[in-house]
Amino acid sequence: MDLKSYLKEQSAKVDAALDRYLPKETELPHSVHKAMRYSIFAGGKRVRPILMLASCQAVGGDTERALPAACAMEMIHTYSLIHDDLPAMDDDDFRRGNPTSHKVFGEAVAILAGDALLTEAFKLTSDPRYANDCDATARLAVIHEIATCAGSYGMVGGQVVDMESEGKSDIDLPTVQYIHTHKTGALIKASVVAGALLGGADERALAAIARYGEAAGLAFQIADDILDIEGTTEEIGKDAGSDQARGKATYPAVIGLAAARDEARNMMDEAMRALEIFGAEADPLREIATYIVSRKS
Amino acid sequence: MDLKSYLKEQSAKVDAALDRYLPKETELPHSVHKAMRYSIFAGGKRVRPILMLASCQAVGGDTERALPAACAMEMIHTYSLIHDDLPAMDDDDFRRGNPTSHKVFGEAVAILAGDALLTEAFKLTSDPRYANDCDATARLAVIHEIATCAGSYGMVGGQVVDMESEGKSDIDLPTVQYIHTHKTGALIKASVVAGALLGGADERALAAIARYGEAAGLAFQIADDILDIEGTTEEIGKDAGSDQARGKATYPAVIGLAAARDEARNMMDEAMRALEIFGAEADPLREIATYIVSRKS
Predict the structure, then answer these.
(1) How much is the pLDDT for A241?
(2) ipTM score
(3) Helix or strand run (H / E) with residue B259
(4) Which of the four pLDDT bands, split at 50, 70 and 90, describes residue B83?
């Protein structure tokens, strides 16, 4: 398969669906709807939604069924970026080369746009109009998986520990592992598990997909840490070396660049092994895992 | 019925359930779990959860079924207060006589504690352990109702317009109505509708409960506006007259105190009429409506 055209096709499908699902800017209150759309359409690669669609396909499901939940996942990812960028948090002025939400709309609207995107995600996944013949119990399980991975035991927990570790010189590997598996890993795992649930996976397939998600999620974040050091500002759309400058807890900072590269590779291999029970339907998941550790942005 | 002991009993039940459902402070990450619990147990009257339980009872349902969703509603209400109090929003140092979340835990943790409470609400309402024999389709409908009323078309929308109207001298009645029905009314309506859904209400009962919720929600907020003027700082737990001082869009500011009082009374009457199809099971809802417009705090 040609991964580049696959990603392009899938992200176009996700973009079109996001445009359909999101409140229009013409609807009240304009400011928050504008801010929600601004950050959603600010050049995200749609990694999480595409992983959800690919996982649904891997277990033999109809990917259309997973489209609303895939978009919900992008809304949650986007809300987390808006809040992370706030002055009280990472205080970032740019994201993917564009001014961050609070720089454009002010802090108050940025906070509320984040809140609204998070809420919209659950409105969308529970919307009776987008049930797509999915079993109600499976839809509840998807909501529960997403909420668990996005909340204080998942992404928010990772963000808190990341923030509290910043600038500390004595961060150990278990702490960096906690941050990475929670801050980034949790949503990636939730994406593939939700896709499998909506695709009608049995227990064995679901467990394999969850293992894939955990390994690929960690590989993704380690690759991100490495990119922050090796990528150019132009490639990664933010200041290169900014993690180092801030004293962020990263894999290269704790175990060194070479060991971090090995670990990303190990995680990718583990993700591949988890997919052995699947046939060609899982090829997109395989290609994405490879892409995750070799990408330049 | 004795409303005072009913409210005491119900709020104790809600408090105990919140304590069971919320992450423990001993669980990682401690700071955010501590902040979540701090604001949840900061003296809230549990109006929304009690309304949900009362509405479940009014349609003949077992109130135990509505307990998880009732607690979820309190989590959403509490997250909205934490975020509203932030320096970028209302910049309040005190809430119900206690220092606000960001004063105790710092802005970053306060933002994340709010995010985590909102997410936890959806985790709880979709948790298979708390299904309580409720039909999965009804549970999805509850999640959808809550998310719709909490998001940009509901509470967040009301907060945005409220903020954007602050200090403007030309606010008209439709704008104040929009703010009130969205900022406060939406969650109150969602509470009673969710209670009715979980109690197994038929279409007619559901429509009556929704009408009750809309009228009672508006009455609640107008009563709040009036309290801000007439209550003492000690009674209301925040600076009396603070709405006026800020140029907040309120009913008394737009139509005068006497007309605002009439309107609160009209809304209460409308709420009562909506309940005419119910018997004594709806007495708690009736008593609460009366209490809403006569309360002193």
Answers:
(1) 74
(2) 0.96
(3) helix B257-274
(4) very high
CA distance linking residue B145 with residue B155, whole number of Å: 12
For B164, residues 6+ apart whose C-beta sits below 8 A from its C-beta are: A29, A31
The predicted structure's pLDDT at residue A202:
97
As a whole number of angstroms, the distance between CA B212 and CA B196 comes to 12
Question: pLDDT at position A294, please?
Answer: 85
Nearest to B66 by CA among B117, B15, B133, B148: B133
What stretches of A151-256 show up as alpha helix (H) in DSSP? 155-165, 173-180, 186-198, 203-230, 233-236, 242-246, 251-255
Query: Which residue numbers in chain A have pLDDT < 70?
Result: 232-240, 297
Q: Which residue in the set A32, A86, A147 is minimally distant from B152, CB to CB?
A: A32
Q: How far is B161 from chain A (nearest CA, A)?
A: 7
Check residue A137 and give its pLDDT. Answer: 96
B271: Cβ–Cβ under 8 A, 6 or more apart, which residues?
B211, B212, B215, B216, B219, B289
Cα distance between residue B14 and residue B85, in whole Å: 24
**Which residues in chain B have their CB less than 8 angstroms from residue A112's CB?**
83, 156, 159-160
The band of B294, judged by pLDDT with boundaries at 50, 70 and 90, is confident
Secondary structure of residue B38 in the 3-state scheme: helix
Distance in angstroms (rounded) separating the CA atoms of residues B116 and B113: 5
Confirm if B128 and A144 have CB atoms less than 8 A apart: yes
- Residue B280: left (phi > 0), alpha (psi -120 to 50), or beta? alpha
Q: Is the dihedral of CA A60, A62, A67, A72 positive or negative?
A: negative
Min distance A275 CA to chain B CA atoms (Å): 28
Mean pLDDT across chain B, nearest whole number?
94
B210 pLDDT band, cuts 50/70/90, is very high
**Average pLDDT, integer, range B45-50:** 96
- Identify which of A264, A165, A171 has the alpha carbon closest to the alpha carbon of residue A218: A264
> Domains of chain A by range and CATH?
3-294 (1.10.600.10)
Q: Where are the beta strands (DSSP E) in chain A?
A: 94-95, 98-99
Alpha carbon of B57: minimum distance to chain A alpha carbons (Å): 25
Judge whether residue B236 has pLDDT over 80: no
Contact: B126, A140; criterion CB under 8 Å: yes
